[in-house]
Amino acid sequence: MFEQFAILGREFVTLLSPMNLLLQFLGMALGVIMGALPGLNATLGIALLTPLTFAVPTQYALAVLMALYIGVMFGGSISAILINIPGTGSAAATLLDGYPLAKKGQAANAIMVSRWTSAVGNFWGLLFFLLCAPILSALALNFSSPEYFWLGIMGIAVCGSFASPDMPVRGWISGLIGLLIAFIGIEDIHAVARFTFGRPELFTGVELISAMMGFFGIPAVISALHTRQEVVTEQLGKQDLPIWKYLKDEFYHIFRWSAIGVWIGALPGVGENVASFLAYADAKKNHPDGPKMGTGVYAGVAAPETANNSAIGGAALPMLTLGIPGSPPAAVLMGALMLHGLRPGPLLPVENPEVIPQIGATIFVGTILTLIVGALLTRPMINILKVRPEILMALVSVLVVIGSYSMKSSIFDVKVMILFGILGFICDKLDYNPAPIVLGMILGPMIDFNLRRTLMLNSGNPIGFFNRPLSLVLIGIIVLSFVGPIIKKFKDPQAGETVA
Amino acid sequence: MEKKGWYSCQILFSFFLILVGLYVIFNSVRYSMPLIKAGDATYVDAPGFSPVVCGGLLIILSLYVAYGSWKRGGTLRYFFSAEMFAALKSKEALTFYKVFTLMFLYGFVLLPSLPYWLSTILFMLAFMITFKYFTWKAVAVSVLTSFTLYYVFGTLFSVALP
What we know:
Chain A is mostly helical. Helices cover about 70% and strands about 0% of the residues of chain A.
C-alpha cells in the first residue's frame, strides 16, 4: 500500500511538467465552463473531448479528461447558485440553498463554499481510491469466469435499482437494452456476426463514444432549446466568509458527506447525481442547520458539492480495478481509456501499473486546480452564462457530429449517433435512465463471454455459477438489489407513479 | 406530458421492446442452429444463447411495464385521440422535429456532398435561423467554428474530413 503512495508521488512530480499542467488547467477550465452551462454535463463533456485526445499520449489524455470530469462537478454549482438552473444533474441539490443564498447577496460566499468543499470532497475520494485500489485489485485477481459474469450482472442490477428507484423494472430494462446493443458485432467464441444487418461497419460493434454523444448530446440540445429562458444572474456580493474556520467547524459533516459520495460513487453506474441528493438529505436530517435548509444555508451547498466530488474517486475505483464504471461519466472515461489501448479491469495493474497512480495523481492535481481555476473563473462565468442557447446548442450539435465522425472517419458513425439521439430522447421522456444502458453496453461482452465460458467449462451444468465463495457473495448482492425495491414497493404501493 | 398520455406511451414503448425481444430471439436461433446442427456449438455456447436470455427477459419485463401502465390508465386508444394530436404539435415536439431534421440534413445530405467547412457553416446558420436567432454574431460564430474545427481535426489530428 505504501508502494502505491510512493508511485503516486512519482506520478505527481511527472504531472507537474509544464505540458501536463497546461493540459490539466485547460481541461479544468473547460470542465468548469461546461458544468456551468445548462445542458452540458460530465458524460457529454468527456465524450466530446475524447476524439481530441487521440493525437496525444495516453498520460496527457488521462490528465485532461480527469481534469474535465472534476471541473464539471464544481462548475455545475455556479449556475445553480447564480441563475437558479443547475448546470448538471449533480448540482440540482445545490440550487435548493445556493440560489436563496445568492438572493441574500451571498453568492460569492456560496461559490467559495462550493469550491472548497468540492476540493475537500475530491481529496477524500482520492484517499479512498488509493487505499482501496490495491485491495480490490488483489481481490479481483482471484476472479474467474463465474465471478466476472456475476459482477457484470451485479453492476446492471444495482445500477438499475438505484437509477430508477420509483420503478426499478425500467432500470433493469435499460440495462437489457444496453446488453442487446453490446451484442451487436462479431462475438468472441465462434466469431459469428450478430445483429449486424450485413453492415461491415457494425462487425466491431457500435462505437461507444459515438453512441454516447448521440444518447446524451441530442436530448440535451432539445431540452436546452425547448426550455429556453432569459438568464438573470444574481450579483456575486462580498466574499467574506472565513473559509478555513468554516471547514474546521464542519469537518465531521464534510467527512460524512464525502463518505456518502465515495460509497455511492463506487456502486456500479449510480454516480454523482444520486450521491449529491443523498448527502443533501443527510444534511437535512443530521446537520444543526437542517431545519433551515431550503432557505439559504451553507450546509445545503456544502453537502451536495462534497458528495458529488468525492464520488469521482469512488467511481474511478471499480472502473479501473474491476472494469465496472461507478457512474455514467466514468463509463465514457472507460471507453476513452479503451480507445487509448488500455484494458480497465483486474489486469490493468499488471499490464499498465502506472495508470492507477496516474489517475490518483491527476485527481490530486485536479483538487488543487479546482481552487485556482474555480476562483479565476467565478467572475467571468457571469458573462459566459449569458451565451444564448441557440449558439451553444448549434456548437454542441456540430461537435457531436465531428466527434462521432472522427472515431473511424466514417459517416456511418454519424448516422449511428443520430439514431442513438432518437433512442436517448425517447428514454429521457419515458424515464428510462441512461446509466444502466451505458453500463449494459460496457459490460455486455464480459457477461456474454463469461456466461457461455462457464457453461462450456462445466459441460452445460449451471453449478459452476454457484460453487465459489466469491460468486455467492456477488449473488447475495444481486438478490438484495432485486429484493430491496420489491420490499419497498410492498411497503409503499404508490411508488412508481412519477410521471416524467 | 399528462399522466394518461405518459402511461399510454409507456405501453407503446413496451410493445416496441417486446417486438425487439422477439426479433432478437428469432434472429439468435436463426444463426445459432446451423452451428449446433453441424456440431460446432452446443446450445449453451452458441452465439445466440445470451441474446435469447436477454431477449426473453426483455419481453417479460416489458409485459410487466405494459400491464402496470394499462392498470394506471394507459391505453393504445390514446394514440388516436385529440390529446395525442395536440402533444404532437407541442413546443417540445416541434423542437424535436426541427433538431432531427437539421441533424439528418447535416449528417445525410450536407456532409456527404459538400466540403466539411461549408457544410458546417450552412448547418450552423440554418440551426440558428430555425431557432430564430440570426445576427452578425451568428454568422461570425458559424464561420469561426467551422474553420477552427476544420483546422483542429483536419490539420492537427489528421482526420480525413469529408
